[in-house]
Amino acid sequence: LSLKPTAQDDDGTTEGLRRKLEPFDFEGARVAFKLHGERVPELTAWLESRGASVFEIPLYRYQPPPDAEVQALLNEIFSGDLDAVAFTSNTQVHYLFAVAERFGQADALRAAFAKGVVAGSVGHITSAALREAGVVRVIQPEHERMGAMIVTLAEHLRS
Question: Labelling 128: which of 17, 55, 114, 140 has CA 20 to 30 A away?
Fold first, then answer.
């Protein structure tokens, strides 16, 4: 298709993208944007409120694991068997806490991260999702990549 973006965020956030789009007139425009696993209803609503027809392009879809597997992870977190949990996307954060909430374990999950289990985050978007979920101790690499996260997490655990 050889599509080129008209505007791009400057910080990886929806708010950053909205700031870049602010000067544009969207009345009667058709706007397409690619999704990274989750819908962005606030951006869609903002564009539609400015007169745009919005087309979301899902690049991929997350297939969540069965609840039993997530419960097994939660049990390992609660038992102290894990020193850290690495998160590579905000979708993972949202799903883990949604399952914990369904089982009445969200407060226990936050407590486990507050006491001993370290939350490793691939970057600032994922870190923001962790903080929004109530996780205050988050380890994030300076260079927002998975390899850098693993190295940073390992260094933290060694110290």
Answer: 55
